[in-house]
Amino acid sequence: MKLPIILVDGNDVNVYLSEEELICDLEPIDVRNQTFLAYDSDGCSIKLLVDNNDIVSVEEPKKICCNQENLKKILAKYIGYVLGNKVASSKSLNELIDTLLTIYKKK
Fold first, then answer.
1. Residue 6 in 3-state DSSP?
2. Listed residue (96, 101, 42) closest to 73, CA to CA
3. Most buried one in 50, 72, 73, 94, CB count within 10 A?
4. End-to-end CA distance of the chain
5. Among 56, 60, 4, which Cα is nearest to 31's?
């Protein structure tokens, strides 16, 4: 899994520099209710799981299930909203993630 991890919650987007950081921020009930979409930095979907003891975990993404274009659209829309401008759709996924990290002051 390529870090950082991108978590999409409706119209909100968060970024996590580690799997541990992500897991600590999630509520088991929200994971059970599939409230979130999670992606690694390659655009691969990450499956969030909860066991019988309410422990949240992350399943490694399958590289064949990557959808960079979908994540790019989500990030461009979110970043455009946060920064109050239109984000060029020609930006690469890495450029969008760098911008997101700057917004969250994690870079």
1. strand
2. 96
3. 72
4. 19
5. 56
